[in-house]
Automatic annotation (TrEMBL):
Name of the protein in its database record: Coenzyme A biosynthesis bifunctional protein CoaBC
PANTHER family in UniProt: HOMO-OLIGOMERIC FLAVIN CONTAINING CYS DECARBOXYLASE FAMILY (PTHR14359), PHOSPHOPANTOTHENOYLCYSTEINE DECARBOXYLASE (PTHR14359:SF6)
UniProt keywords, alphabetically: Decarboxylase, Flavoprotein, FMN, Ligase, Lyase, Magnesium, Metal-binding, Multifunctional enzyme
Requisite cofactors: Mg(2+); FMN
Domain spans labelled DNA/pantothenate metabolism flavoprotein C-terminal: 192-407
Cofactor binding mode and count: Binds 1 FMN per subunit.
Domain (Flavoprotein): residue spans on this chain: 11-178
Region (Phosphopantothenate--cysteine ligase): 197-413
Single Gene Ontology BP annotation: coenzyme A biosynthetic process
EC number per UniProt: 4.1.1.36, 6.3.2.5
């Protein structure tokens, strides 16, 4: 009788270079290990000045070394890279990026980078001036040309009182990005490389007075999943987020807005240079005809104020009608419920024809389904008549299905 062995766990190498953000890599390591990945931590000597070897060993369950002479009989400077399914370097300093771009190998991490034949993700963290320096710009370009995935750093508070671009993205977002890369095979699946993608997410607010507003229940989760997965597939991503409280996706430019007018302005502006526009946000259909400068008070007699509404512009229809090039792909979303006038799909097909977009992602939201949930299911309707059902699953899986359809359309244009 034969017994089947348990499937091997994906092997992730977590490289850590010497920046103050090294402490955040502990959270990234925890997410990998708690999700069942086999993780080998390879820090640089400088990284150990910020987080000691015992911490990395305790969190990973493996001994930690920085140089090639430890356990030399096992040839670690070759074996670690050869056996990896994914290498993530977080944080990646300017010094580490320079060494990787020029093929230097003076410690265990840089040797590992030279021997790895799997996807390699760099998550840079440094001061803005270092990130913007021509040497760093050239090194990043070199690494990307060779197929490495270099995430754009986040903007925010840096070391000391400085703020700007160069902050390490949120560890949860680096983890989600890495998982998407691992699932798709990395550089071999960079089918959106060189493309500019605009995604909108969240729900707009239309103010009645300084306190109250009309809004909706959109959480932004699906739009953020679309932005994150597009970045993992190589795209330059602009995310226009309306009233979303989620962490910024790794490697994505985020523009914050509140109202439908602001959403329209930012999406239209970004779309002028975009290959793809995905309207995953839920703009309010109506806004108050008049804004009251002071808070609306309760009436003594208990009566409610009369509030006149006016219709907001149809952003999706405008994008489809005024696209800068026939090659641009425009994707809309339809949160639908059935009623006496038709089923969910009947309403959706009518909307696809009315809006003029290339794809319409249809969600049945009867009973409040989808909103705020980590999961989604959808049907992708194409103007070409092709219908793609997407079974219930993680919103990242739905996002991948949408990008699969988009990639096919881009290839055919």
């Amino acid at each position: 009788m034969t017994t089947s062995s348990a499937p091997s766990r994906p092997h992730v190498v977590l490289g850590v270079s010497g920046g103050i953000a090294a402490y955040k890599a502990c959270e990234l390591l925890r997410r990998f290990t708690e999700s069942g990945y086999d993780v080998t931590v390879v820090p640089t000597e400088a990284a150990l000045e910020f987080v000691g070897a015992p911490t990395w060993a305790a969190l990973s369950g493996k001994p930690v070394s920085t140089e090639v002479w430890t356990d030399v009989h096992q040839v670690p400077h070759v074996r670690i890279g050869q056996t990896a399914d994914l290498v993530v370097v977080a944080p990646a300093t300017a010094n580490l990026l320079a060494k990787a771009a020029h093929g230097l190998a003076d410690d265990l991490l840089t040797n590992t980078l030279l021997t790895a034949r799997c996807p390699v993700v760099f998550a840079p963290a440094m001061h803005t001036e270092m990130w913007d320096h021509p040497a760093t710009v050239a090194n990043v370009a070199t690494l990307r040309e060779r197929g490495a995935l270099v995430i754009e750093p986040a903007e925010g508070r840096l070391t000391g009182a400085d703020t700007g671009k160069g902050r390490l993205p949120d560890p949860a977002e680096i983890y989600a990005y890495a998982v998407d890369v691992l699932a798709r095979g990395g550089a071999q699946a960079q089918d959106l490389a060189g493309r500019h993608v605009v995604v909108s997410a969240g729900g707009t607010r239309e103010y009645l007075d300084p306190v109250r507003f009309l809004g909706n229940r959109s959480s932004g989760l699906q739009g953020y999943a679309l932005a994150r997965t597009a970045a993992a597939r190589g795209a330059e991503v602009t995310l226009v987020a309306a009233n979303v409280t989620l962490a910024d996706p790794a490697g994505v430019k985020v523009v914050k807005v509140e109202t439908t007018a602001q959403l329209q302005e930012q999406v239209v502006s970004a779309s002028r240079s975009a290959d793809v526009v995905v309207m995953a946000a839920a703009p309010a259909d109506f806004r108050p005809a008049q804004f009251t400068d002071s808070k609306i008070k309760k009436a003594e007699d208990g009566s409610a104020p009369d509030i006149r509404l006016t219709q907001n512009p149809d952003i999706l229809a405008g994008l489809a009608r005024d696209r800068p090039s026939p090659a641009q792909v425009v994707v809309g979303f339809a949160a639908e419920t059935g009623d006496a006038h038709g089923t969910v799909m009947e309403h959706a097909r009518a909307k696809l024809a009315r809006k003029g977009c290339d794809l319409l992602v249809v969600n049945d939201v009867g009973g409040g389904k989808v909103f705020g949930s980590e999961e989604n299911e959808a049907v992708i309707l194409g103007a070409d008549g092709v219908t793609t059902p997407v079974p219930r699953g993680a919103k990242s899986a739905v996002a991948q299905a949408i990008w699969d359809r988009v990639a096919g359309l881009l290839e055919s244009r």
